[in-house]
Recover the amino acids of this structure.
């Protein structure tokens, strides 16, 4: 009986030690561990590589480049108008962009790769995408520089220009999980 009490006591001490070690690790690693726990639930490809630089114009002709977003978390999204999953995903991007519009630490930017900018403008007007930043890349050079071969595809880039995650296919960017993932990166 004494042996059993000692064994239970040792088990409690070891268990408590493991629990404290895990909590200490979480405190030291901080947001990066919490970020991974949340973001990996969206089933991305984890990259942690420097984002390729780019310079594109929006539908109004204004130039944008990756460096314009330095210091902010950027959701960079590649799409085209004849892509059904792209069309399904766009409303959640529109809502996210509107909800985060006042946040100086986060930005949503989309890159359209259609052959005709007039078609993109008509599509944006028809689908009420006015609040969503749309850049245009007929050459598809920017998505290729990121390794994008299928659409839609999104990249979550941190404030120092490191691509943390690549999301292949559509996501609901207004889901609780997506909101939590982005919140951990701000």
């Amino acid at each position: 009986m004494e042996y059993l009490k000692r064994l239970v006591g040792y088990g409690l001490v070891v268990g408590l030690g493991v629990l404290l070690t895990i909590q200490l690790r979480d405190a030291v690693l901080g947001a990066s561990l919490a970020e991974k726990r949340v973001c990996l639930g969206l089933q991305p490809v984890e990259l942690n590589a420097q984002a390729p630089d780019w310079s594109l114009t929006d539908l109004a002709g204004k130039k944008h480049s990756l460096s314009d977003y330095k210091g902010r978390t950027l959701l960079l999204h590649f799409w085209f108008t004849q892509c059904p999953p792209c069309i399904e995903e766009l409303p959640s991007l529109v809502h996210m962009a509107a909800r985060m519009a006042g946040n100086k630490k986060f930005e949503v930017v989309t890159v359209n790769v259609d052959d005709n900018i007039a078609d993109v403008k008509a599509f944006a007007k028809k689908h009420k995408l006015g609040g969503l930043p749309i850049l245009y890349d007929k050459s598809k050079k920017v998505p290729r520089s990121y390794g994008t071969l299928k659409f839609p595809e999104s990249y979550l880039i941190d404030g120092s220009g490191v691509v943390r995650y690549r999301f292949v296919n559509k996501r609901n960017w207004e889901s609780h999980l997506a909101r939590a993932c982005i919140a951990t990166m701000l």
Notes: Residues 11-31 have pLDDT under 50 and may be disordered.
